[in-house]
Amino acid sequence: MSGLIKYTGVVLGVLFAFIIQAQNMGINTYNLNSESNMLQGKMLGEVLTLTAEVNSYFLYPNDWVPGSVKFVNGNVFENLQLRYQAYNDELISYNDNGRFLYQVEKELVESFSFQDGNKTRKFVRLTRNNNQQTNMYLEELYKGAVSLMVNWYIYEQSVSPYKDRNGIMRAVEYKLHKDYYLYTEQDGLTKIRLNRAALLSRFPENQKQIRKLLRQNRLRVNDELSMVNALLLLNENNITQ
User: Fold this and answer.
1) pTM of the model
2) Are residues 144 and 43 in the same domain?
């Protein structure tokens, strides 16, 4: 019996030490609701170590940037240092006080945003696509009846052998790329190019009206901003309903 008591005491001691450590993680929290099941409202995730390769090639942006994370239970965490791991589609945060990294638990995240230069980028976690279960982060450029989304990803490209910044011989380069999609709850994701022809093909029954609206507003669809403005225009004229 005394052995059991001693063992129980050790376990409780370890748990208490874990709680104390978690409470001193130094992460500011805001808008925490009363139903939160998190330890003192702290972020949950896996502490990790990034290799030089991952840090150099797989993270976006190039450096840690200020941002915020919203959980599915409504909790909002602000003043975080964030980067997006585009190779494995994961959100990474840096804790300046503890000087460690952790991968935010994906299933808890509803959305996150960060500053990329003078632009704020918002990513949402998509859980269903064409009635299929999924679990992926997409940048949300426009939210409406028909939303414009971006899928960021890393791909490998074979190149002539070279030494990287760490002096390691390599025969591949990693490229950051993005694909654009229109999204509706009914149809899910539909890949699209940023031009007028692609927009017209998405709404075949309204092509004449769309051409007229684009012409009247002198709107040429050829980049992210013009596609967003075109979708806003279509929404205002009830074409995307």
Assistant:
1) 0.76
2) yes
